[in-house]
Amino acid sequence: DKEMNIIFLLHPSSRIDNSDPYTPASVFEALTRQRLIDAATSAFNLEDSKNELLLVYLASRDIGNGWWCWGAGSDNNLCSSPVDGSDSDFFKEALMHVKKSLAPSTRAKVFLFGYSGGARMAWRLACDPEISNLLDGVSMAAGLLPTSLQNDFDEDEKFIAEAESSSCRVDQLPPSVVVLHGDLDTTTNVEFANQSIEWVARSAGCELTGE
Fold first, then answer.
1. Which of 63, 121, 196, 201 is the 20 to 30 A CA-CA neighbour of 139?
2. Which is nearest to 118 in space by CA: 93, 149, 81?
3. Are the C-beta atoms of residues 19 and 62 closer than 8 Å to each other?
């Protein structure tokens, strides 16, 4: 029997004047391969793993004017494809395709890693119960939890149970959720990442410790 770690990687929102649908993923891979491997394996504590590692780069849709963006939501005034479920279905189909290509005896762990716009999409996928139960871990780098996935709290800071079905199901997130963000990020301020973490913690009834 073979054990394998599979990491799906979602590229950032990108402006690339090329009609090849594979271009965003291939450019992302070419520019950041080793740094991505280091960041992803560190996020999921896989540095000392003896399992075979498979990286799967996925590409978003061309929304016009050379922009390639995931359907993560245009709230926060950020680039987005339509949030119509297409990207979620695409991820599930890609995962099914990869698993079918493995030997039947292979035991695989599945992780999802998104960067910037890809991180927002990783949040949306992780918040979807139909997808989260397929993942052993998810990590978001330089991204934020779309505000459309965040429910409000009442005056007593209690999570409102009558949440819309489209909101994040914090109780069904993957077993490992890791958020990475640099203090000097000039594109997506680190405060957005902090707010995302705070919202998830409050929704789960947890207290934040440390800085």
1. 63
2. 81
3. yes
pLDDT tens string for the chain (211 positions)? 899 999 999 999 999 988 888 889 988 888 888 888 899 999 999 999 999 999 999 999 999 999 999 999 988 888 999 999 999 999 999 999 999 999 999 999 999 999 999 999 999 999 999 999 999 999 999 999 998 898 765 545 554 444 445 689 898 999 999 999 999 999 889 999 999 999 999 888 888 876 5
The whole-angstrom separation of Cα 186 and Cα 204 is: 30
Single out the residue of 43, 15, 46 nearest to residue 28, CA to CA.
15
In degrees rounded to 5, what are phi and psi of residue 146?
-55, 135
Task: Report phi then psi at 100, rounded to 5.
Answer: -65, -25
Task: State if pTM tops 0.70.
Answer: yes
Four-CA torsion 176, 192, 122, 153, nearest 10 degrees: 70
**End-to-end Cα separation, the chain, in angstroms:** 43
Burial class (CB in 10 A: 0-12, 13-18, 19+), 63: middle
Q: Kind of pairing, strands 137-141 and 177-180?
A: parallel
**Contacts by 97-104, CB closer than 8 A, 24 or more apart:** 98/6, 98/54, 98/56, 102/4, 103/2
